């Protein structure tokens, strides 16, 4: 086990992604190309006999800093107080898994589908503890709705290296029933040794869980912060007394991006060259 865990380590980021510079059109094009190049046909086998869900991994600039938009779930029957991506079950009314991810994102945080520029997907899709097959998509969040198709083809060479507009989190409309907090996880945090904890996904596959306790707590200590928005009055999350994997906010009282969320983050960051692969 220790040997396997030692093979998982953050490393300085090569192209296509910088951890410190804001996302640009050039960055998004590179991410899209990378995801297309690493996506396998084995990742897209859709079994209609299964129950399906979909999530959006929302990349965004906030205050001109690149990062990922995450949620802390509200007081739900399941997943209460857990860090997650926007998303949920694929309904019969959804045209596709992607449509479900976009619908759920709008319902949970008020981001309209026209604000989301889909960059790709990755896999394979894992099963949740509830038995749903969860399909992950990657998108960049624009602060305002965009006209579909206005992309790199309308920009000059110089414009492709300009920062993409930042998202103002105060414009989000959280569903109080589903989402307690939404926050921006800056990319430097995903390689911070103080935040990272080595876990095994489903007991076999090494991944990083990311401690975000201070980000959520900070909102209530400093209301002027603009990287967190809340629908609740106090920061709270619950750890499972038995510290069972993927149940509750995290281990040892921490609030962590762990379980399926942590596994998908690790998988995506491996694809983008931020983390080393297992071998």
From TrEMBL:
Residue ranges occupied by any Nudix hydrolase domain in the UniProt entry: 50-209
UniProt KW keywords: Hydrolase, Magnesium, Manganese, Metal-binding
Domain of life, per lineage: Eukaryota
Keyword Metal-binding included in the entry's annotation: yes
A Pfam family it matches: NUDIX
Listed cofactors: Mg(2+); Mn(2+)
Magnesium is among the record's keywords: yes
Alphabetical list of InterPro entries matching this protein: CoAse (IPR045121), NUDIX_hydrolase-like_dom_sf (IPR015797), NUDIX_hydrolase_dom (IPR000086)
Composition skew (Polar residues), residue ranges: 1-10
Transmembrane portions of the chain: none
Region (Disordered), start-end ranges: 1-23
Entry-linked PANTHER family: NUDIX HYDROLASE (PTHR12992), PEROXISOMAL COENZYME A DIPHOSPHATASE NUDT7 (PTHR12992:SF24)
Protein name, per record: Nudix hydrolase domain-containing protein
């Amino acid at each position: 086990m220790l040997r396997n865990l030692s093979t998982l380590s953050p490393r300085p980021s090569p192209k296509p992604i910088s951890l410190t510079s804001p996302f640009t059109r050039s960055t998004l094009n590179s991410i899209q190309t990378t995801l297309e190049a690493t996506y396998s046909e084995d990742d897209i086998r859709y079994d209609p006999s299964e129950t399906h869900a979909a999530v959006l991994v929302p990349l965004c600039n906030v205050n001109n800093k690149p990062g990922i938009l995450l949620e802390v779930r509200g007081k739900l029957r399941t997943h209460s107080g857990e860090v997650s991506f926007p998303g949920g079950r694929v309904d019969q009314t959804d045209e596709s898994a992607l449509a479900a991810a976009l619908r759920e994102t709008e319902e949970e945080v008020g981001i309209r589908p026209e604000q989301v520029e889909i960059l790709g997907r990755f896999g394979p899709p894992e099963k949740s503890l509830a038995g749903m097959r969860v399909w992950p998509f990657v998108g960049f969040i624009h602060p305002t709705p965009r006209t579909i198709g206005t992309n790199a083809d309308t920009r000059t060479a110089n414009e492709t290296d300009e920062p993409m507009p930042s998202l103002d989190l105060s414009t989000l409309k959280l569903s109080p029933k589903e989402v307690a907090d939404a926050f921006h996880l800056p990319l430097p945090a995903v390689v911070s040794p103080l935040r990272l904890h080595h876990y095994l996904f489903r007991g076999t596959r090494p991944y990083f869980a990311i401690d975000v306790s201070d980000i959520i707590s900070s909102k209530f200590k400093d209301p002027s912060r603009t990287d967190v928005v809340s629908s609740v009055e106090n920061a709270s999350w619950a750890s499972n007394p038995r510290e069972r994997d993927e149940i509750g906010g995290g281990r040892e009282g921490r609030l962590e991006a762990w379980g399926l969320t942590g596994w998908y983050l690790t998988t995506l960051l491996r694809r983008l060259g931020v983390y080393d692969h297992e071998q």
